């Protein structure tokens, strides 16, 4: 099922799960919902500025948030809601960066679970002064879509992430630092390296021998370390599960090398 403009909507019970963590921002001056959809989040704050490229309510302004040009003159700004994710979460990251550029003091977004990973909490996305203060795991089928006007439950593995800028409270910072993951059985080598024994496809997770692949750009190349059996390692790699790292609609994903290492450690080292 093809979803137009990333239009999948948040269920009311899921909004209620997120609401408690938003009420701490009641004293803020400006509330922005950048992709308001059908308005699921609009009843939390009475004076929310709501935008969407395809608004479903009259109080939602027709506006591409990424093209928005506003100056809030040092007011305290909360940007919140369920932004579109896009392929490999590229749109979600654009919404985060745009929120920061508009002067947001807090960002509270429904995001794919890959944003729990250190690679998606870097200073490049959230500068150093940002603290991750809350992550609320969302239930299965937290969303719905319309297919020919029919309401259909929809699942993407997601959580509700709450970030604050320059927070001086005693709230713990849940932000992760990038951890070096050491694997003794294999190493990653350069693309098309003659040393490679196996490849892992970044889209499917399928493990193959280098001579079997047709598109090297979609592959991670692996060299098996001495004293480890090639066929055994190939079988073990094929048994890894990557769905928890899904980053785009419908559970499709791109697997990076750290995620392969994490999946290996979780399955075989713990």
From TrEMBL:
Record protein name field:
Putative type II DNA modification enzyme(Methyltransferase)
> What InterPro entries has UniProt attached to this entry?
DNA_methylase_N6_adenine_CS, Mtase_EDM2, SAM-dependent_MTases_sf
Q: Which residues form a coiled coil?
A: none
Q: Name one GO biological process term.
A: methylation
Q: Which GO terms describe its molecular function?
A: methyltransferase activity; nucleic acid binding
**Entries under Pfam families matching the protein:** Mtase_EDM2
DM2 domain mapped to chain residues: 50-168
What's the source species for this entry?
A: Mycoplasmopsis gallinarum
- UniProt keywords, alphabetically: Methyltransferase, Transferase
């Amino acid at each position: 099922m093809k979803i137009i403009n990333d239009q999948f909507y948040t269920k009311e019970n899921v909004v209620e799960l997120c609401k408690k963590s938003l009420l701490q921002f009641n004293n803020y001056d400006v509330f922005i919902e950048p992709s308001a959809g059908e308005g699921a989040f609009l009843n939390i704050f009475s004076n929310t500025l709501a935008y969407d490229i395809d608004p479903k309510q009259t109080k939602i302004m027709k506006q591409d948030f990424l093209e928005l040009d506003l100056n809030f003159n040092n007011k305290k700004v909360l940007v919140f809601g369920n932004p579109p994710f896009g392929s490999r979460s590229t749109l979600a990251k654009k919404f985060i960066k745009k929120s920061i550029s508009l002067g947001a003091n807090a960002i509270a977004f429904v995001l794919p679970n890959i944003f729990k990973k250190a690679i998606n909490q870097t200073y490049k996305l959230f500068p150093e002064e940002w603290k991750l203060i809350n992550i609320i795991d969302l239930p299965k089928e937290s969303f719905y879509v319309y297919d020919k006007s029919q309401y259909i439950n929809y699942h993407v593995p997601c959580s509700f992430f709450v970030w604050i800028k320059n927070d001086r409270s005693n709230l713990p910072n849940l932000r992760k630092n990038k951890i070096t993951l050491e694997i003794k059985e294999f190493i990653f080598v350069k693309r098309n390296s003659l040393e490679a024994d196996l490849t892992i496809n970044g889209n499917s997770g399928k493990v193959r021998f280098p001579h079997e692949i047709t598109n090297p750009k979609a592959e991670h190349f692996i060299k098996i370390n001495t004293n480890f059996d090639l066929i055994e390692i190939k079988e073990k790699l094929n048994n890894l599960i990557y769905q928890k790292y899904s980053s785009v609609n419908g559970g499709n994903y791109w697997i990076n090398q750290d995620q392969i290492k994490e999946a290996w450690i979780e399955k075989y080292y713990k």
